[in-house]
Design goal:
This protein is an alpha+beta fold and 153 residues long. It has a single domain, classed as Pnp Oxidase, Chain A (Roll). Helix content is 33%, strand content 46%. Strands 2-3-4-7-6-5 form a six-stranded antiparallel barrel, surrounded by four helices. The chain is globular.
């Protein structure tokens, strides 16, 4: 197996096609990692959520990272890590950005509607509002592993 760094443009292509990642945030020196669905567009990752631990923590400390990967097998994989800053998109001042986030996420699937409904049923609060946020990307890096046998063959 050979592992190589990926160029920024290669990382962007991975982000454009990915939808599942792991969000890392921290609060009072305690890290927290949680899976998220996202959509990439023009230097931002757009995300849908409802209020919970990750939102509380990111409001307190907006520095975050997101990792996404694609694995063919143990010796062929891609991993991209984004470092950036959390930015909540409340209405009405971010109406256009919320619509943009919603349209980007809707292209993937309507999983986020189910997540909202599930949380409303579990918590029993019909007033839970959808919360959109984005992560402004400050830096990104990626690694690509290739199987040396495949490359020679």
């Amino acid at each position: 197996m050979e592992v190589n760094e990926m160029a920024a443009e290669e990382c962007k292509v991975v982000l454009e096609h990915a939808s599942l990642g792991r969000l890392g945030c921290s609060y009072e020196n305690q890290p927290y990692v949680v899976p998220i669905y996202f959509a990439y567009d023009s230097g931002y990752l757009y995300v849908f959520s409802t209020f919970g631990q990750k939102i509380k923590w990111m409001r307190a400390n907006p520095k975050v990272c997101v990792q996404t990967d694609q694995a063919q097998n143990q010796s062929e994989w891609i991993s991209v890590i984004v470092n950036g800053e959390y930015e909540e998109l409340p209405g009405p001042q971010y109406t256009a950005e919320r619509k943009h986030a919603s349209s980007l996420l809707a292209k993937r699937s309507y999983w986020w509607l189910n997540a909202l409904g599930e949380r409303q049923m579990r918590v029993g609060d019909k007033s839970i509002e959808p919360l959109f946020f984005r992560i402004q990307i400050h830096s990104m890096s990626g690694l690509r592993a290739t199987d040396e046998k495949e490359r020679r063959g």
